[in-house]
DNA sequence: CAGCATCCACGATGATACTG
DNA sequence: CAGTATCATCGTGGATGCTG
């Protein structure tokens, strides 16, 4: 009874191996699709946010993981960090141009997951 | 010198926490964005394939991970498994309707990663 | 060919405490 | 507030060997 529609193959030209193991794409993909990476990128797609704001919104993340994930994304040039030399400290994070491009692709995916999760993970009602 | 363009916020309505921890979306997202999940889904987006074919194309995957990932995706109703009672055994995997929907969103993301990986991960030439 | 069962290692992640 | 340092652990994932 499973739906099994399989329209025309998608246009893809890089899928032959699916990628070479250890190629840059794999690394980038791992950063981006990491457990917390997706969530942070999505959160930031709504605009710049402070550390504490991100921590609160990304429910369940530890400080360590937040710091680590942000650093990775920053090194990848997807997120930009802006620290203000005030006391108490204030640091804002935002998407770079690249990060924004990426989030534009990530958002529909996450939205789909959000819409279908209930049915898929729980009852198939 | 980093590009720092930040156009209008993307339309998103579910991002307030970013999701509740432990909600179905998180689980589904973890399955889909898992290290091998993405790659398998992408590989299958080009059409049904046999176990051995998937194993070969998804370079670097172990049998254990292939089996495990396929099972998860099958339980989630994204991949369908068709075993033929012949000797030697032949099993084909393909995307379900849901799986195809998903892969349609995944492909642009992966393509983007593929196109930008070199620059992002390696030299920023 | 297409798996499953086991054992094992290490890295990812969490909890806690401390600091500029 | 925005982190960093340290430690304990938990699970992911690899290697191997066996089977229908």
From TrEMBL, chains A, B:
Pfam families assigned: HxlR (PF01638)
PROSITE patterns reported for this sequence: HTH_HXLR
Keyword list, A-Z: DNA-binding, Transcription, Transcription regulation
Top-level taxon of the source organism: Bacteria
Entry-linked InterPro entries: HTH_HxlR, WH-like_DNA-bd_sf, WH_DNA-bd_sf
GO terms, molecular function: DNA binding
Residue ranges of every copy of the HTH hxlR-type domain listed in the record: 23-121
PANTHER family: HTH-TYPE TRANSCRIPTIONAL REGULATOR YODB (PTHR33204:SF37), TRANSCRIPTIONAL REGULATOR, MARR FAMILY (PTHR33204)
Protein name in the entry: Transcriptional regulator
Lineage, highest ranks first: Bacteria, Bacillati, Actinomycetota, Actinomycetes, Micrococcales
């Amino acid at each position: 009874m499973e739906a099994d529609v399989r329209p025309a193959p998608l246009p893809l030209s890089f899928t032959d191996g699916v990628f070479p193991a250890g190629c840059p794409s794999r690394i980038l993909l791992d950063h981006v699709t990491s457990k917390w990476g997706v969530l942070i990128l999505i959160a930031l797609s709504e605009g710049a946010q402070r550390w504490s704001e991100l921590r609160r919104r990304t429910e369940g993340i530890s400080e360590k993981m937040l710091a680590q994930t942000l650093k990775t994304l920053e090194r990848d040039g997807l997120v930009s960090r802006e620290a203000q030399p005030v006391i108490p400290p204030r640091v804002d994070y935002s998407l770079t141009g690249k990060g924004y491009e990426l989030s534009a692709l990530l958002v529909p995916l996450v939205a789909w997951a959000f819409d279908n999760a209930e049915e898929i993970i729980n009852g198939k009602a």
